[in-house]
Amino acid sequence: MAIEAWFMDENNEDKRLHHKRNPNEPVSLEHLAELGVLYWHLNPENYENDEELQKIREDRGYSYMDLLDLCPEKVANYEEKLKNFYTEHIHADEEIRYCLEGCGYFDVRDKDDHWIRIWIKAGDLIVLPAGIYHRFTLDTSNYVKLMRLFVGEPVWTAYNRPQEEHPARKEYIKGFTENVGVPLKAH
User: Fold this and answer.
1) Which residue numbers belong to the known binding site for Fe(2+)?
2) How confident is the model at residue 182 (pLDDT cuts 50, 70, 90)?
3) Which CATH architecture has domain 4-172?
4) Distance in angstroms (rounded) separating the CA atoms of residues 156 and 96
5) Residue numbering of the annotated binding site for Ni(2+)
6) Which of 70, 73, 77, 161 has its C-alpha lying 20 to 30 A from 182's C-alpha?
């Protein structure tokens, strides 16, 4: 089962709704890969013993892992935290999230600065490249359990837009100009 992604509409209704354009404009895994977004579908019921997850972690150097239950009952200042996650930002490192339960949305900007909404559900592991503008929110279920992976010690520093001079953003943009016409592998 592949992840679902689409170009977002421009309305300001509840951010937890799908926000699909009418008509819907789906986004393929290949298009996400062109933006540097990587994806795997794994078995969330077996994450503690999953050999494929272990191989991904070893191959990509993800040595640190923790779990986050994100819902009103388990997170202090829940609405404020969601507001912060939904503020458009970049990171200096990859953002790696594996959805174990529930659902949520990662929104990423494409090359033309349009929003693409990626709906993650149980079993979806995505990697957002360093320097990509993005944001996160839950869907109307108001619950997600995520595994967060990092190379080395975790760094959660978000740099809110604009960040055009940030080294990670410059490197991300440079990747587009150097790799025009070079297809990336979709997982």
Assistant:
1) 89, 91, 95, 134
2) very low
3) Sandwich (2.60)
4) 11
5) 89, 91, 95, 134
6) 161
Taking the whole predicted model, whether its pTM rises above 0.70 is answered as yes
Q: Look at residue 1 in the predicted model and tell me its pLDDT.
A: 60
Per-domain boundaries in the chain? 4-172
Measured CA angle at 108 (ends 73, 128), to 5 deg? 80
Distance from C-alpha of 178 to C-alpha of 164, rounded to nearest angstrom: 17
Binding site as annotated, residues? 89, 91, 95, 134
Nearest to 105 by CA among 94, 117, 88, 113: 117
Cα separation, 103 vs 115, in Å, equals: 19
Q: How far apart are CA 6 and CA 27, in angstroms?
A: 5
Tell me how far apart the alpha carbons of residues 166 and 133 are, in angstroms, rounded to a whole number.
12
Contacts of 159 (CB under 8 A, 6+ apart): 89, 90, 91, 92, 166, 168
In which region does residue 142 sit, left (phi positive, over 0), alpha (psi from -120 to 50) or beta (all else)?
left
